[in-house]
Amino acid sequence: MYCTDDEALFTYINEFTGSRSKLDNFIISENLSSHVCRYYSINKGDNLSYHIPIVVDITLSIEYLNDIQKIMFLRKASRGKATPGQIVSSRDLLSNLLDGIEIPIQAMYCKNMFCKYHNSDIDTYYSFIITSCIKAISQCIPRTSKPKIEGWNDNVKPYKEQSVFWH
User: Considering the domain boundaries, does residue 78 fall inside one?
Assistant: First the structure.
């Protein structure tokens, strides 16, 4: 996808030499290019860098997770807490669930990359696989006691311990 000069005037400016150029870019795959609404640079006076930020606006439809899936992802499966029997049970259940999924054979042999009929079959097949994995794990593998906050132990925990010590 190319941008006209009106959309992004420049992405690099050197006030000492007076040079301006379009150095920075977004690389967007062909299947996303039709979803690009705008591509532009933001030239504000508060930016101390020689590089001007660039923005790409993309419009996509998004499927939302249902409430059960949201709750399931709050508490992650803990393979470390699982017994060998639970792991075997999970593997067996997953195998049974996957055996019940019909493989879209015609979609596998379709050579049309934009085929809406077969794309739907592949999306459905993918959803069944993901749902089977989630179901096998949620039924057989124990979960963590509470949701983990990314970066907590590395960034916040030392300050918490120091705060508790001084109070």
Answer: yes
